[in-house]
Specification:
The complex is a heterodimer of chains A (197) and B (365). By secondary structure, chain A is an alpha/beta fold. In chain A, 44% of the residues lie in helices and 13% in strands. Chain A has 2 domains: 49 residues, Orthogonal Bundle (Helicase, Ruva Protein, domain 3), CATH 1.10.8.420; 94 residues, Dna Topoisomerase Vi A Subunit, Chain: A, domain 2 (3-Layer(aba) Sandwich). Chain B has 9 helices and 15 strands. The longest helix of chain B is centred in the middle third of the chain and has 41 residues.
Chain lengths: 197, 365
């Protein structure tokens, strides 16, 4: 045990993901030895983030204002919306630089085991957007798990009757991979999801 | 297919073991508790990544050590491969084939194939239907490694559907979605079971007659809890469609009972002896002969389909049989197959092979 305030910081740091007791101790003592201004900058950055960053009221991405940078960007194609489970997934899709549409963050996937049904996801909000905006197509980019599949299927059933196209990311072979080295499960999925040329 | 060498570190009773089994029959002899079954368990683990005794991974690690290690050289046709598995007390299991880390469990399946026969398998016929379902699923994985993923997805989707039913919500669209996912994976699981049964049918009769020295007739069929007319020769899509409509039909009952009342989780293979259900009409001796015949038929089926006989593991089986069946089983064992047999008493083992004595974790010829 250390002096009260030091121990309190160690306890808080140790609650962060990926940080164990020892790392928490090292970080705390580091912050104790650096210039006071440096340590204060960290605490201000945390406070500012919590104060200024919230959810985008349109797509539920993280946002520094009422709407996120993507929703504010008028050059983006508002006809196509990519539906993802978590805000982190947006970063992954953005990195491809292949997608110029908007997003919608569901906040998870259907999983009755964990008590998550459509009401626990942002399905109603998506419905409002489909009815109120110019959306023509939903691209569902949920994870290729049993739960992600079920969520994609649910979206197809709920939204196709509203007249929008609903598509799902293809699952297939890694780029540059040799057919020889593809495992049979990936290859099987790629076959099932083949495209006409 | 055979194990050329096996190295164990802190695995159960073995702190350090380096063993080179013979390509043919190996007879492991030693008193009870000497560690004979542990050796078979290690070999089986290399093939399936789980204990054939259904023990949790922690139970495989020797007391007061950090990790169990299993390493083995496997040869099949002209190909030699190296499997290495580390099971640590803390953290995730590490598996390598030819020094390459595996991305997922299913990538290991098929590198080594085994058919194991344990004393409790003799009761296969009179035990609950889950044991016979598992048997078909295990054979399916050895024949088609992708079956592993379908089985895992089916279990997961079924648990989700049951959790939804248990919640008491009535939401047709959500249930539609789980129906579709359960049927998609469940159709494939059922199709593979039906294919295993088809393949086993003729082999089972031959094996039964060899072990029993009789001219009895046997039958094996896949009995489904959901009506489908196409269990023979149907495609995965037809199975999935059949299951989907069965789920729709039982929806009312499922809502009421809050559990999925139809599907592969309720099916079972039915075994017949001279036209009668072997569970009801077979004597204990006949049921045990049937259990042995099923395992032999499984071995022959996998050997035929993969062109390489799986390693056969027989744990203390001969002592449970009368002398007549015991020698008939010995005569029916596949040739050209690496076989590991354990016994407390070598005079009870009516097969010829290299004898190893096992005691206190050491082996010697």
């Amino acid at each position: 045990m250390f002096e009260g305030p030091v121990q309190r910081l160690i306890d808080e740091l140790a609650r962060l993901p990926g940080v164990g007791r020892k790392t928490a101790q090292r970080l705390a003592f580091h912050l104790l030895t650096v210039e006071e201004a440096d340590a204060r900058r960290l605490s201000v950055a945390i406070a500012d983030m919590r104060e200024q960053v919230g959810q985008c009221r349109r797509c539920f991405n993280v946002a520094a204002g009422e709407e996120c940078a993507i929703c504010r960007d008028v050059k983006r194609d508002a006809d196509v919306v990519c539906v993802v489970e978590r805000p982190q997934d947006i970063v992954v899709v953005e990195r491809t630089q292949e997608f110029r549409g908007l997003y919608h963050v569901l906040g998870g996937s259907l999983s009755p085991i964990n008590g998550v049904g459509p009401d626990q996801l942002r399905m109603a909000e998506l419905k409002n957007r489909v009815e109120g905006e110019s959306i023509q197509e939903l691209i569902v980019a949920t994870n290729p798990t049993v739960e992600g599949d079920a969520t994609a299927m649910y979206i197809a059933r709920e939204f196709k009757p509203l007249g929008v196209r609903v598509s799902r990311l293809a699952s297939g072979l890694p780029v540059g991979g040799d057919l020889d080295y593809a495992d049979e499960i990936t290859l099987g999925r790629a076959l099932a999801g083949r495209m006409e040329l | 297919m055979r194990v050329d060498w096996l190295v164990l570190g802190d695995f159960r009773s073995y702190h350090s073991l380096d063993w080179k089994p013979e390509p043919g029959v190996n007879i492991l002899v030693g008193p009870n508790g000497a560690g004979k079954t542990n050796l078979l368990e290690a070999v089986s683990y290399l093939a399936t990544l789980r204990s054939f005794r259904r023990a949790p991974d922690e139970a495989l690690i020797a007391d007061d050590t950090d990790a169990a290690i299993i390493r083995a050289g496997i040869s099949s046709d002209d190909r030699e491969r190296l499997i290495e598995i580390e099971i640590p007390v803390k953290g995730a299991r590490r598996t390598q084939v030819d020094k390459q880390r595996l991305r997922r469990t299913s990538d290991l399946l098929g590198v080594l194939r085994v058919v194991a026969f344990l004393p409790e398998d003799l009761d296969l016929i009179k035990r609950g239907p889950a044991y016979r379902r598992d048997l078909l699923d295990e054979i399916a994985i050895q024949l088609w490694p992708a079956a592993y993923v379908d089985q895992a997805e089916f279990d997961r989707a079924l648990r989700q559907r049951n959790a939804f039913l248990k919640s008491g919500h009535r939401d047709g669209t959500t249930l539609d979605v789980w129906d579709a996912r359960v049927a998609q994976a469940g159709g494939k699981v059922a199709l593979r079971r039906a294919r295993v049964v088809e393949g086993m049918e003729p082999l089972l009769g031959d094996a039964y007659r060899e072990i029993s020295s009789s001219d009895a007739t046997t039958g094996i069929s896949y009995q489904s809890s959901w009506p489908s007319e196409r269990f023979v020769g149907g495609s995965a899509a037809e199975f999935t469609d059949g299951m989907l409509s069965a789920l729709r039909e039982t929806r009312g009952t499922d809502y009421e009972r809050r559990v999925t009342t139809t599907g592969p989780q309720r099916d079972e293979p039915v075994l017949e002896l001279d036209g009668h259900d072997a569970r009801v009409h077979g004597s204990q001796g006949e049921q045990r002969t049937m259990a042995l015949a099923i395992k032999l038929a499984a071995h022959r089926l996998i050997a035929e389909a993969t062109d390489s006989p799986p390693v056969l593991l027989l744990d203390d089986v001969f002592s449970e049989l009368d002398p007549k069946r015991s020698s008939a089983l010995a005569g029916a064992l596949p040739g050209d197959t690496q076989t590991l047999v354990t016994s407390a008493r070598p005079d009870e083992v009516p097969v010829v092979g290299v004898v190893w004595s096992v005691d206190g974790g050491l082996l010697r010829e």
